[in-house]
Each structure stands twice: as C-alpha cells, then as structure tokens.
Specification:
The protein is an alpha+beta fold. The protein is built from five helices and twelve strands. 33% of the residues lie in helices and 34% in strands. The strands form three sheets. Strands 5, 6, 7, 8, 10, 11 and 12 form a seven-stranded antiparallel beta sheet that branches. The protein has a three-stranded antiparallel beta sheet with strand order 3-4-9. About 16% of the residues have low confidence.
Amino acid sequence: MSEHLPPPPRRASSGFGDPALVFPEFASKQRGLEKVQEEEGEGEDSSYGGKGSFDLSSRFSSPSVSRNGFETPKKTSSLKLPGFREEEETDRSTNSGSFVDREEKKKCPGCFRKCCACTCMFLSIVLVILLLTGLSVNSSVKSSLPQVSVTNLRFSRLDFANSTTDLRLNANLKTVLELSNKNDKSVLYYGSMRAAVSSENINLGQKKLVGFTQSPGNVTYLNIATRLRKAKVYDVDATLLRNKEKKLEAVVNVRLSGKLGFDWLGFRIHLPTVIACEDVKQSDVINGLKPTCDVRIFSQ
C-alpha cells in the first residue's frame, strides 16, 4: 500500500506572488469576494478583470521579503497620469514665458531711460547751439546798427481853415535824419521804408522812402518831407499845435519802419527794423542838440 506523501512545501517567493500566500488574513476576504462574483455572474464592469474575477494582487502590492524573513521596504513610484504630465509641461512653458516677460520688462525701463536721456541730450545741444547763434547774431547786429539823430525839423506851412462844421488843417513839414554807420567793416542795406510824422495826436503825413546802401563809416542824411491838406482835426489839438509852433516848441514824433540788412558770416540777413524818434522838441533841433532816435530790430 503506497503512502501518499504530502506535497513539498512551496518555496517562498521574493514577494511578487499572491498576497494571500504571504498574508493569510487576505485569503478569507478573497474567497468571500469570489463567491459574490459567482452569484452576480459575468458581465460586470471591465475594470474588475472583464470575466467576473477580482484580482487582489492588482489592488494590493505585496511587500518584498528577504531571505532572513525581514520585510524590506519597497520604493513606491509616484503615479503619473498623461493629463498631469501635459499640465506640468504647460505650467513649465507658462512659467518660462512669464520669466522671459519679466526679463523683458526689466530690460525695457532701462532702454526707455536711455532713449529719454539721448533725446534730452540732443535737444539740449540744439538749444545751446540756437542760443549761441542768437547771441552771436544779436551782438553782431547791435554793433552794426546805425546811429540816427534829427538834424532839422521845420514847418514851412501850418494854417487852419474853418468850415461850416469842422476845423481843417494844412501843413508842410520837413524833417532831416542823420544816419551814421560807425562800423568800419560791415555794409548796411536799407530796404524800402515808410515814414510817419505826428504831433499832438495829429497825423502830419506819411511818406514812402526808397531803399539804399550805406558803406562802412559813411554818414547819410535822409530827407522826409510830408504834406497835409484839409485834414479834419479837433479844436483842442489844433490849438495846442498852433501855439507851440509859434513859440518854436512843437513836439514831433517820427517813425520809420522797414527792413535793414547785414552781412554775417558770409550771409546777408534782413531783419525787421523800426527807427523811432519820439518826443523830438523843435527847440532842441534848432539849437543843434540833435536828438537821438532808437533803432529797434525784430519790430514793426
């Protein structure tokens, strides 16, 4: 009679077999689950194996057991799903883009400051050049301006005629101006000018003068003869002018406006100029005092 020997004991695996073999408490649970699956039948969710079987080995990982019987901890790998990887890559790209933007923003203020500094420096240089040029022209022009004085002021006729309603004035006045070019190098170019003479708020006439050229160190006498016929005047102004003229104390204003030309650095420039002889007393002219006149550039 042959003896049935018990099967040899199974060699302990390295820890990757069925967890029920290593952990006995899982065996009862596994058998209970298999009964439930048999009653429910096949056709359950494919996530449980597709044929009604429920594998606890996929749910539980058995720890590795060494030959000495001591459990060795197993390194758990992090669970990485495809969606998480895409989000991580997107976050990295976004963070890298934001870093580049921050770097560009850090560089932009420096570039803006450099641009502003260069623009301000350029404008400052232009302004300095214009200022120096203006000062040079101004000093050169002022040194070239002529000296003007009144050498003669005489009424050849001054009478009033009464009409039915108004007072009329007839007057002839001769004024002589002396223009001296004190500069020994520059030539003065006088354009056509308009002369206006007045006294006691009465317009004594206007005259247009032809332009001329004045050489360095030259003296030119300019005759201004005005004529007025039957001009309407106020009684008070006419009375003042008549009384002062009889005493040779008439006060006359002479004003010339036009353009005056100069040579500056090889260029000929023409500037608006006014020659104003204000409050010239007839008595001073007769006594030879030669009242001076103001020469104003950039004026009309």
